[in-house]
Amino acid sequence: MNRERLMTILLSPHVSEKSTLAADKHRQFVFRVRSDASKPEIKRAVEQMFKVEVQNVQALNVKGKRKTFGRIRGHRPGWKKAYVTLKPGHDIDFLSGE
Fold this sequence. Notes:
alpha+beta; two-stranded antiparallel ribbon; 36% strand; Alpha-Beta Plaits; 30% helix
């Protein structure tokens, strides 16, 4: 895997009430990732970008919702998210910028 691909795997952190509880309770962080990313790629990308050790990665596809805009029916695109569990003693702090 080349470095350029690893830098594009993680799109953004997914911040929600559920992801905040998972981070506090289980040291899990939720990221929005590319749809074609695999678990080993996600693991390497997190370890490289945040200088932490990853214990486990769980990835899932989120289906897009059906929406109605007046009389026009459509749907939002699907996306992929990953739950990343860190080894004890490691932490990611998004607010400090490190």
